[in-house]
Amino acid sequence: MIALSREQWRARAARHRERAGEELADVVWRRDRGLKHPVDDFLFQYYNLRPSQLAAWHPGIGVELEGASELGSRPYHRRSAGSVEFDGAAFLAKRGSTVHTAAALLQASRDAAPRFGCFGMHEWAMVYRLPAGETRHPYLPLRFPPEQLAAIVEDVGCRCTHFDAFRFFTPQARSLNVLQPTRQAQPELDQPGCLHVNMDLYKWAGKLAPAVASELLLDCFRLAREIRHVDMRASAYDLSGWGLEPIAVETAEGRREYVAHQKRFAERARPLRRALLEVCHQLDATIR
User: Which of 245, 286, 281 is nearest to 99 (CA)?
Assistant: First the structure.
């Protein structure tokens, strides 16, 4: 248990709010004006956290806050002799299945060998042989007409390992994938070269909050945001109107660029995955 004086934890909370404010300023500006964004809309709709939740500060498990009686009413926190700390046992009693699922998938992807041969074709498979107006993002133009787009998918091939990407493939595209991922097989197939597996660190950080410190949650969000930029730049959509130039994975040069991004994200995800696993282990230890 780490003890923080009132001065220490208030300073830490202020630093986090400032950092989150800088990171989310453009998100809040667009939200207040009802403007769409092809990257950030996904992060806040699919992962279901609000900017205010990212900006709120909590210390996470294993930290005692001295002189913090005003924080004692927060969910999963308890007062103890004038201090406040996270109540791991209460959290585990309520959300134990989430903790165990997170731990299993985080550990599986940590131990798996990375694969770098999908070239981002999952996003192409989600629009394979669909009319432009029926895509998941109908306000975004496609870079190629449907027949040419389909030919690219068939030429490059589909090697997606992530169920939560594969489940959005069009029916016609599913049979093109080398694997047929299922929810049950996810621990066997998740691997650290996958952009969506590394984006999901943000999902698990959010589901494990407030056991996860706000600083770690924001770190996972920042990584997910950068990954989603690459994910969409490598897609069949034309995002040039948002200042995002395509990664042309339909070419050998573009595929090499995509793999370079995958390798960089896999390295950056490693310490975040390790930190989230440590939170899961600390939670388990509260009832042993």
Answer: 281
Please check whether residue 65 is in contact with residue 79, taking contact to mean a CB–CB distance below 8 angstroms.
Answer: no
Residue 182 is predicted with a pLDDT of 97
pLDDT tens for each residue of 264-285: 999 999 999 999 999 999 999 8
For residue 253, give Cα distances in angstroms to 243, 273, 287: 21, 30, 52
- Residue 106 and residue 204 in contact, taking contact as beta carbons nearer than 8 Å: yes
The helix/strand/coil state of 77 is: strand
Ranges of residues in the chain whose predicted pLDDT is under 50:
none
Reading the block at residue 13, the tokens are 């909370």
Q: Are 272 and 220 in contact (CB under 8 A)?
A: yes
End-to-end CA distance of the chain, in Å?
Answer: 16
Which residues, in sequence order, are CB contacts of 244 under 8 Å at separation 6+?
Answer: 38, 39, 229, 232, 233
The pTM for the full model equals 0.95
Query: What pLDDT score was predicted for residue 133?
Result: 76
Distance from CA of residue 268 to its chain's centroid?
13
DSSP β-bridge partners for residue 84 = 65, 79
Kindly give, in sequence order, each residue whose CB lies less than 8 Å from that of residue 54, ignoring residues fewer than 6 positions away: 20, 23, 24, 214, 217, 218, 221
